[in-house]
Every structure is written in structure tokens, then in C-alpha cells.
Amino acid sequence: LTILGIESSCDDTAAAILHQPIVGDAEILASVVHGQTDLHAPFGGVVPEIAARAHAEKVDLCVEEALTAANVSLLDVDAIAVTAGPGLIGGVISGVMCAKGLSASLNIPLIGVNHLAGHALTPRLTDQVAFPYLMLLVSGGHCQFLIAHGPEYFSRLGGTIDDAPGEAFDKTARLLGLRQPGGPAVQAEATKGDPKRFRFPRPLLDRPGCDMSFSGLKTALLRQRDAIIAEKGGLPVQDRADMCAGFQAAVVDVLAEKTRRALDIYLTENPSEPLLAVAGGVAANTAIRAGLETVCTDKGVTFTAPPLALCTDNAAMIAYAGLERYHTGARDGMDLSARPRWPLDQTSPALLGSGK
Ligand code: ATP
Ligand code: FE
């Protein structure tokens, strides 16, 4: 079975081709991503109107490039999977319209995919991972713990009540005059700094459950930065590194402790091979990975993270989630609609991909 995946929900236009032999694992034949970072850079964040226009312009090109790279013709494609939400609606519509057109003209099945299900199922594309497993999705726009029970059945244990960690890294970089995206820049500075010099809160650790909050870190950072500037007339390089180290250490502590709690809940399900998978751009952070690995080792749980290109937005994960849905018999019609909001734990089998 050969499946085409299309992704256009945020600021990456992407297409991918997966092939699954009758017996055996799915293989990525091609995965093409056209980012829009340069287009949005002058505005300091993703501008929905610009994103929508760029997706509309690039989506056909991405599909053509993926087909060429995979050395596959459109006539070889057996099904089309497309992100139907959640995301910036203008972009999602571009992908969904393209997928509908191809599905109708080629007379092949159309499968709507929840973008978050794409992230959450990625560990099964890259490794032999059995349900149920615990997933920490941690990116520029999301932060949540999910138990993946099946390809269409997820339960959400908790998540951020305000900013996502990636957003907090990006804001931190902006406040300290570092380049975007902020995550790698802040991480690099943090290696040169003292994490104990400045005090950062560990929000919500005093409360039970898996919910998190990251917006207070930015406020703490701003206050301390301004105090230094008032005192010294500028921000010396070492102070900046110390702030990055302190900020990152706070994020690591919060994620590690909340992961410990999420694992406790997950382990009550008695999984035979307990596993925590992490995905999302923030999973690239080595300090965060190390923190999560320590917690997993303590609890006797395997830790896994897909390769970075499959952790950030891509269409291979959408094609794969589509493939999993395909095997459950799920099919969507021309009434599949693009959804700006679509919580994953509401994707009960009956609702998932129905677009209603
Ligand atoms: P979403 O997928 O939720 O819609 P997104 O597309 O913004 O959001 P990703 O592409 O998964 O998210 O990840 C980008 C985010 O990851 C950015 O906020 C970036 O700063 C962050 N990031 C990347 N590398 C690192 C790192 N080494 N440390 C911390 N954060 C990082
Ligand atoms: Fe994403």
C-alpha cells in the first residue's frame, strides 16, 4: 500500500510518501518539508494570513517533489491522508482541498488525520512500539501528556494551562536578544551559565496532577533582566548565560516532575513493556531529554524519541497516522472539513476524521 500524506497546519508545508508491503513495516519513501520561517521572521511570529497564502502556493509543489523523490507516480498512490486540524484554518484548508481534489480525481480513499495524532503515533513509525504507551508532546504550540491506547484512542492526562515550552524558549530568546527559533539559542547559552544564580519559579509543582504552566517563567526573566540592566546599564554576556541556564533548569524540573506523575498514572494500566515517547521540537533539547531519561530509568520505563526530523512538523507522520486509520477501515468523504480546534482526547473512533 502506498499512501500520500499532506501537512499544512502551521508554518510548514509538507508532503510524504509511505509504502507498506503486505507483510512488514511502513517505509518512508520521501518526506518533503517547505518551512516558512523566513516569511514570518520580520513579524516575530507566525502571521496566519501569510501562512495561508504560502501553503496555498506550495502544497502542489510539495506533493510533486515528494512523488519525484519517492520515484512514484500519482497512479501508484492508493490512499491520501491529510491533516484536517487542529491548526491555522487557512493552511489546513489548503491541504484538505488539495487532498480532496486528488482523492476525487484518482478515485482513491481520503483519510483526515488529527495533527496531534500524527505526532503521537510517530514512535510506532520509527520503532516497534506497542499500545499503550505514554506520550509527551512538547513543541512550539503544544505541551501535553497522552496515553496512546490505540490508533484512534488517546487519553489526555494533563498539559500546559498557558504557554507551550517552545513558546517560552522563543520568548526568552527574544527578551535576551538571541536569535529565533529560541530553543537552540537558549540551550547553547545555558551550557555556559550557572543555573542557580537567578531564581525561577517551578509553577504548579505544589498542585497534584499533570498540568503545567510556563508563562510565569517569562515574567520572572523579564523582572530579573530589567533589574540587571538598571544596575549595570546593559546585559553582560555572563548574566545572559546565567539567565538562560536558570530558565532552562526550571523547564527541565517542571517537565521531569510532571512526567513522573504522568508515569505513575500510566503504570496503573500495567503495560507489558512500559514506554515513554517524546515528540515535538522541544524534544531536541538535550537537558530536557536527560531529565526525562532519568525519571524513566528510576521507574523502569523505556524512553524513546523519534529522530528530530520526525519530531517537528512533517507529513510522514500524517501519512503514517492515515495508514493506521486506513487499516481500521476509516474513510472520509468530500464533506471532510478543516477544524481549527480538535482536542485529541475527543477523537473517539466515531468522531475521528469525520470532520464534524
Ligand atoms: P506545533 O507543532 O505545536 O504546531 P511548532 O511547529 O512551533 O508547534 P515544532 O516545529 O515542533 O513546533 O518545534 C518548534 C519549537 O521547538 C520552537 O519553539 C523551538 O524554539 C523549539 N526548540 C527547538 N529546538 C529546541 C531546543 N534545543 N531546546 C528547546 N526548544 C527547542
Ligand atoms: Fe506539530
From TrEMBL:
Chain spans, region Disordered: 337-356
Keywords: Acyltransferase, Cytoplasm, Iron, Metal-binding, Transferase, tRNA processing
Needed co-factor(s): Fe(2+)
Top-level class of the enzyme under EC nomenclature: transferase
InterPro entries, A to Z: ATPase_NBD, Gcp-like_dom, KAE1/TsaD, Peptidase_M22_CS, TsaD
Family as reported in the entry's similarity comment: Belongs to the KAE1 / TsaD family.
Protein name: tRNA N6-adenosine threonylcarbamoyltransferase
Gene behind this protein: tsaD
Cofactor note: Binds 1 Fe(2+) ion per subunit.
NCBIfam families: gcp_kae1, T6A_TsaD_YgjD
Residues that coordinate or bind Fe cation: H115, H119, D313
PANTHER family recorded: TRNA N6-ADENOSINE THREONYLCARBAMOYLTRANSFERASE, TRNA N6-ADENOSINE THREONYLCARBAMOYLTRANSFERASE, MITOCHONDRIAL
Domain Gcp-like: 27-320
Sequence positions that bind substrate: L137, V138, S139, G140, G141, D170, G183, N285
Annotated function: Required for the formation of a threonylcarbamoyl group on adenosine at position 37 (t(6)A37) in tRNAs that read codons beginning with adenine. Is involved in the transfer of the threonylcarbamoyl moiety of threonylcarbamoyl-AMP (TC-AMP) to the N6 group of A37, together with TsaE and TsaB. TsaD likely plays a direct catalytic role in this reaction.
HAMAP family reported in the protein's UniProt record: TsaD
EC id: 2.3.1.234
Localisation: Cytoplasm
Reactions mediated catalytically: L-threonylcarbamoyladenylate + adenosine(37) in tRNA = N(6)-L-threonylcarbamoyladenosine(37) in tRNA + AMP + H(+)
This protein's record includes keyword Phosphoprotein: no
Keyword Transferase: yes
